[in-house]
């Protein structure tokens, strides 16, 4: 099992399982966390690690809606992900697919839940891969560090938006 608990973000990957589970508790109400997570104007503020610029080409958070994000890497290359939303039940849950355009056919099913916990929100992102090998390759690509950085940036965004509201 991989369990990255070096920050407030926990990433768990059990041996011989096809999934990765990321959890994080944010000091913000569930509605605000859901809205920030699904706002295309805010995605570039937190999605992917620092130093990578994200452009949202499309993002229609509703069943059958599609999304496509382009990461502009420091070396000038681009990394593109896209998918389809299967469920969007604000503010509790989102189900969608995710696919790296450079590896077509390797589709990941993601379920993100937002659980209210005494004014805070527990976000759980469960990613189910088509095989253990595909999951392991994703872990080996630096996903743990990237996820931790993204969740830190997301927490900072929520804190900043709360300060702006006050």
Structure description:
With 166 residues, the chain is of the alpha+beta class. It has one domain: START domain (Alpha-D-Glucose-1,6-Bisphosphate, Chain A, domain 4, 2-Layer Sandwich). Helix content is 28%, strand content 42%. It has a nine-stranded antiparallel sheet with strand order 1-2-3-9-8-7-6-5-4. A hairpin with a 6-residue loop joins β7 and β8. The radius of gyration is 15 Å and the shape is globular. The termini are far apart.
Short description:
The chain is an alpha+beta fold. About 30% of the residues lie in helices and about 40% in strands.
How large, in whole angstroms, is the Cα Rg? 15 Å
What is the overall silhouette?
Answer: globular
Give the beta-strand count: 9
Mean pLDDT: 92
Q: Pairing-aware structural class of the strands and helices?
A: alpha+beta
Oligomer status: single chain
Structurally, the number of domains stands at 1
Task: Give the topology string: H per helix, E per strand.
Answer: EEEHHEEEEEEH
For CATH, the homologous superfamily is named as: START domain
Q: Which class in CATH terms?
A: Alpha Beta
Helix content: 25-40%
